[in-house]
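If you are new to this repository, start here. Below is one unmodified record pulled from the training split, so you can see the exact layout before writing a loader.
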Amino acid sequence: MNAPRTRTLSHGFEAAAAPTDMRSTVVPEGHPAPLRWPRRSATAATPATLQVEDAYEAHFDFVWRTARRLGTPPPQLDDVVQEVFVVVQRRLPEFEGRSQLKTWLFSITRRVVRAHLRQNARHRRAALEEIPEIADASTPDAESQLASDEDTRLLYSLLDELDADKREVFVLSELEEMSGPEIAQALDLQLSNVYARVRVARLAFEAALKRYRARHQRSR
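And here is the target side for that same chain:
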């Protein structure tokens, strides 16, 4: 496995980028569950001709990592992602291309995740208990992979300290690096409200990170 790259978020938290042979694009969150959907030939799709297979092929990774980052426990990811694409299949005729497909998919994923979390509130804290693909310490690049796994645990731990509204806007702005207008469309908010929420979410994340560092220093 290639050594993971890193980038520094605006608040100074260094998140590990995925190794080049993994599907996640920001932190190594494990390989997405292998859902099955019929493959179509790679052709440009317009809103009028878009099929669920097109959305699946182009944005499965995005839906999987969004569901995970919004708090879906790993044991439930298969069900949540599958349900997202079932909703996509049912609602695809409504998509008119007025927003990015990715933005529309986030809105659906957000609603599905929130419904699952309401139904399974007792599993909310279980999101940190499984980090797939923990490296064998004897393999090449094991040290960097283990560091990446620890970064992933820390990221989810800090995200779990944010309420749902802050978590969603933080994921979009800091992890998916969406623009303000894209976030406004995804969350159905006024643009001014988006920028305000991003500032509040960053401050909340920074506060959670400071608390973690303080606890870490005391434990030494």
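Two things worth knowing about this chain: Helices lie at 52-69, 77-91, 101-119, 142-159, 164-175, 180-187, 191-219. The longest helix spans residues 191-219.
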